[in-house]
Design goal:
The complex is a heterodimer of chains A (641) and B (344). With 641 residues, chain A is mainly β. The relative contact order of chain A is 0.13. In chain B, strands 4-3-2-29 form a 4-stranded antiparallel beta sheet. Chain B is globular, with a radius of gyration of 22 Å. Chain B starts with a helix and ends with a strand. In chain B, 46% of the residues are buried. Classes of the chains: A mainly beta (641), B mainly beta (344). At the A-B interface, strand 31 of A face helix 1 and strand 1 of B. Strand 31 of chain A pairs antiparallel with strand 1 of chain B, so a sheet runs across the interface.
């Protein structure tokens, strides 16, 4: 009965809200209307917002690596990149595209290198339970990618061009047309690279330099966004994204290239209908994804082909309860169809869920309470819930604490891979707690007149420190069997604990037209095995592979009039590369730096940029025997009118 | 200003003090000596294969010896080793190469150009290298270290034995499909021609010659079609003499080896088993019962008759080799590199 109710919850919610009065609305400004989301982030949980205007040439992994506290693992330039949030793995990181789960239902992961930021306007990193507003699965956390309508009236054109080392060329085109009721935006991206860089060949006597081979990539993407303001309380937003990637997969150092290639084709689309009434706001969204992944190793005669279609629907509402309690709720449903030559037959998966959040702002305290219940196939998933609070300690200090649970269902590969798939797997379950202190100070100098304008001096300082603890049990891992193939089992429990610290500083001097921005993140993560179901006691208390104990990033930018300068520094401490902690990759400390110059001519803005990547020409591996290029350069050109 | 100086100081400190690139071992081993080589296969695509040296007299083990001696890793997936005159020939499967060292593991040269090499044997002054994917046996000139010829085969060629100046080579069929029928070829190393063949059971995985020059072949069979079995063949008449069949579907026997006097067969079937070459009717006897171990390789010392069984654990951690006498009494536990696969 309960299950049936969950399945039908989308309709029930629509039915319920249909009864709420349809009174007229005061006029909203369009901007707010476009920006405001019906489901808001849990602000008693930690969150990191990323992305600035200089990220347009980058893919998601590059931004996460250089300006967030999380650890990014990659297989080399342009190759597979995944995320580890607070010691959890790539599979425990859930990605959402405009609120829809986008991890592959077969692999349970997303390749971050296939997400160019050119098509995205907002990126948020949510930790653990805070990812539950969109869906389950983010035991470590989630990345939210969002398209926001940049509703500008009139015609606007943007052209981007990048020339970079190793024959990399990127071209981006943007065109938008905004009216009172309609907004259209079209973006096209083309990227190609040869990436034959030199690296230290550790597989040969005296470690000579060698050139990377079979490392070409080609990407093409196009995105159309549409906004329709039906009236001042109804807005339609829609995005259609096509993205094709073709890349060669290079051999490891000392390996033989089998000329392997991988082609990914993606179609992502969604339509949202936002309706903002006086007593409630709602958002009805549907999406359709079509993905295909094709891996070819013709020398070994291995051809892998996966095709996925996913249909999703969501209904979100927001209203006030007893005037002061803010309520948000959503119901969602998704259906996936997968064909893979690893399965005996095509597989389907049906998921539905309901989510509810209550939050209230009191004098010195705000709190959030949330719960999520999902149904996967006809199995009821564990209830996910959480609570958090912010307490104002005074003197600009705030205390933040929260607790939440989460879970992740086995992937279709885990369940059905032939041979080995194990349909008796239980979901992974986790809980996490976080406690931290923030200090926020904004100081403004009194406004003063200077020549023609009215100016302010502004300084913002933010300091935060948080401790976190999380446990995940029923961790799914593939294990060898006595029959020569591997099988996934609920192998172990792991524990992650650590500390994150951040310092953000911003200084704006309007008179001199100068701006300083500095960010610093540091994370300490101890990620260890707690227990095993197969008697691997000797691995208890060993650090999880590819989880650095220390990660730090530092970013500094300074701009003066039309010139700006930036420097970013990354530090990752050593990572163990085998479960017994007998081998490791050394720490690495690469830096990037760049200069931009802006030329204004009437309505035309031209920005020229020069960037040096891996400034100290450091030779390092992020994944063992997958070399990273030494010092390299890029020249960028951005034209807007 | 002070802060900036400090910061720059830290940057230079971190940049300059570091010389390590790529994978490193937490425990560095000194160069050791011992009569046994442990081949640690490593993980496919990780490039973490390694060579350990074990001294049976002192029970000392020295891991990562190839790197300790030569300053670079041996490569990706170490499959086998063989000796020719005073040289070791290490077959490194996914690096597509054979690395040649002296008996102290000092690198001499390498042979490259293989597709997916498995084993090497020597005859008529040439090297013969079997291959997983090439559907051929490579013939190597041992002076120039160049591939000079390929002998076409049906599929995946595996173990290779020199016997009375003829090469006995196992062909496992298509390496992806484990196709049958499967064959054992008799190859003349001078004419480089296949002279004859034996059709074996489905999916042969290992073979040995006994004291009477009879060939024993262990086949894995195919679920629903044929059971696993051990078959004895007369190498001269190429006919089968006797067969032992494993009837249980949970049987998955592999790694057939033979003792010093060539009258007792040993193999893995989860645990370690022994089979006398003269009395097949009684069937195999259990020598060492496994508990949670993941037995992976089996080796009988040709001098002491001691049994060495390797435990790959879950393949993602350092493994161990269990040394026991011929009755299965444990003499030593040897901590090795990742995925110890065989000894030499």
């Amino acid at each position: 009965m309960y299950k049936k109710w969950l399945k039908n919850s989308v309709f029930i919610l629509i039915f319920l809200t249909g009864k709420i009065s349809f009174s007229q609305l005061k006029s909203d400004t369009l901007k707010e209307f476009v920006k405001e989301e019906v489901l808001s982030n849990l602000n008693t949980f930690s969150k990191v917002s990323l992305l600035d205007s200089n990220s347009q040439f980058l893919s998601l992994n590059e931004v996460l690596e250089s300006s967030s506290p999380v650890y990014v693992k990659n297989y080399g330039k342009g190759q597979l990149a995944t995320l580890s949030i607070r010691g959890n793995g790539a599979s425990q990181t859930q990605l959402f595209w405009n609120g829809f789960k986008m991890n592959s239902p077969t692999l349970g992961q997303t390749d971050l290198s296939l997400i160019p930021l050119f098509f995205i306007s907002e990126v948020n990193l949510n930790y653990s339970g805070a990812s539950s507003m969109d869906g389950s699965g983010g035991i470590g956390g989630s990345i939210q990618l969002a398209n926001k309508l940049n509703w500008k009236k009139g015609i606007h054109v943007g052209i981007l061009q990048e020339f970079a080392s190793f024959s990399n060329f990127t071209t981006g085109l943007g065109f938008s047309f905004g009216g009172k009721r309609f907004y259209h935006q079209l973006k096209i991206l083309h990227q190609k690279g040869v990436n034959e860089f030199d690296f230290v060949d550790l597989s040969k006597l005296n470690n000579p330099l060698n050139t990377q081979e079979n490392n070409k990539l080609k990407q093409f993407g196009a995105q159309y966004e549409l906004g329709i303001q039906l009236n001042n309380k109804n807005l339609i937003q829609s995005t259609l994204l096509l993205f094709d990637s073709y890349r060669e997969l290079p051999p490891i150092i000392g390996g033989v290239s089998n000329r392997e290639t991988q082609a990914d084709k993606n179609l992502k689309s969604f339509v949202s209908w936002k309706s903002f009434q006086i007593k409630f706001k709602s958002d009805f969204r549907i999406s359709f994804f079509q993905e295909s992944m094709n891996y070819t190793d013709s020398i070994s005669s291995i051809f892998s082909d996966v095709k996925i279609k996913t249909y999703q629907g969501q209904y979100r509402i927001k209203f006030n309860l007893l005037k002061k309690i803010k309520m948000e709720a959503s119901a969602q449903s998704s259906y996936s169809e997968v064909s893979s030559n690893g399965f005996e037959s095509n597989k389907k998966r049906n998921e539905s869920g309901v989510y509810m959040k209550a939050s209230q702002e009191l004098k010195k305290l705000n709190y959030d309470l949330f719960a999520r219940q999902e149904l996967v196939g006809d199995k009821l998933s564990p209830l996910v819930y959480g609570a958090g609070l912010n307490y104002n300690l005074g003197n600009k200090f705030g205390l933040k604490g929260n607790y939440s649970t989460n879970y992740r269902v086995p992937t279709l590969n885990d369940l059905y891979w032939n041979p080995g798939g194990n349909d008796k797997l239980n979901p992974e379950r986790g809980w996490t707690a976080e406690l931290g202190i923030d200090y926020d100070k904004v100081s403004k100098k009194k406004g003063f007149r200077y020549r023609k304008g009215y100016f302010n001096d502004e300084q913002k300082i933010n300091f935060g420190i948080r401790g976190f603890y999380n446990q995940t049990s029923n961790w799914i891992q593939w294990q060898p069997t006595d029959f020569g193939y591997w099988e996934p089992v609920n192998l172990k429990s792991i524990e992650n604990k650590g500390v994150e610290a951040s310092v953000k500083y911003k200084y704006l001097n309007n008179k001199k037209a100068s701006k300083i921005k500095a960010n610093f993140f540091y994370t300490f993560t101890r990620s260890t095995n707690l227990s095993f179901s197969n008697g691997s006691e000797e691995l208890i208390n060993k650090q999880t592979v590819y989880v650095p104990m220390h990660k730090a990033t530092f970013f500094l930018s300074y701009s003066y009039k039309k010139l700006s300068f930036s420097y970013s520094q990354l530090y990752n401490s050593r990572v163990f590369i085998d479960a017994s902690n007998s081998a490791y990759l050394p720490h690495y400390f690469p830096a990037n730096t760049g200069v931009d110059y802006l030329i204004n001519f009437k309505n035309i803005r031209l920005k020229l940029g020069l960037k040096v990547i891996n400034l100290y020409n450091e030779q390092y591996h992020v994944t063992a025997n997958r070399p990273i290029p030494g010092r390299n350069y890029s020249v960028t050109l951005k034209l807007n009118f | 200003m002070k802060n900036i100086t400090l910061y720059i100081g830290i940057v230079f400190f971190l940049c300059n003090c570091k010389k390590e690139i790529g994978p490193q071992n937490v425990q560095e081993y000194a160069k050791g000596t011992g009569s046994l080589i442990v081949l640690n296969e490593g993980n496919f695509g990780f490039g973490n294969a390694s060579v350990s040296i074990y001294n049976p007299d002192t029970k000392e083990v020295f891991n990562n010896q190839f790197k300790a001696v030569n300053g670079f890793g041996i490569g990706d997936v170490l499959q086998s080793v063989n000796r020719y005159q005073d040289r070791f020939y290490f077959v490194v499967n996914n690096s597509g190469k054979v690395v040649i060292t002296d008996t102290n593991l000092v690198y001499q040269s390498q042979i490259t150009g293989f597709n997916s090499p498995r084993y090497i044997e020597f005859a008529n002054g040439k090297g013969f290298v079997t291959d997983l994917k090439q559907k051929a046996i490579y013939v190597v000139d041992l002076v120039s270290n160049q591939i000079i010829h390929q002998i076409q085969t049906q599929g995946w060629t595996e173990q290779i034995i020199l016997h009375q100046n003829k090469l006995i080579v196992m062909d496992r069929g298509d390496y992806l499909a484990n196709s049958s029928p499967n064959f054992i070829y008799i190859i003349n190393p001078i004419t480089l021609q296949k002279e004859d063949s034996i059709q074996t059971g489905i999916n042969p995985n290992s073979m040995v010659l006994d004291k009477n020059d009879k060939l024993w072949v262990l086949t894995s069979g195919e679920t629903g079609t044929e059971s696993s079995k051990i078959t004895q063949y007369d190498i001269n008449t190429l006919s089968s003499i006797k067969t032992f069949i494993f009837f249980s579907s949970s049987d998955n026997p592999s790694r057939l080896v033979i003792n010093k006097t060539k009258d007792k067969l040993y193999f893995l079937n989860g645990s370690v088993y022994e089979q006398s070459v003269s009395n097949l009717i009684l069937g195999p006897t259990l020598i060492f019962q496994k508990s949670t171990e993941n037995f992976y390789g089996l080796y009988i010392c040709k001098y002491t008759n001691e049994i060495y069984v390797t435990n790959a654990k879950n393949y993602s951690q350092t493994g161990e080799v269990i040394r026991m006498n011929s009755l299965g009494d444990v003499i030593d536990y040897i901590a090795t590199g990742i995925n110890p696969q065989n000894l030499f």
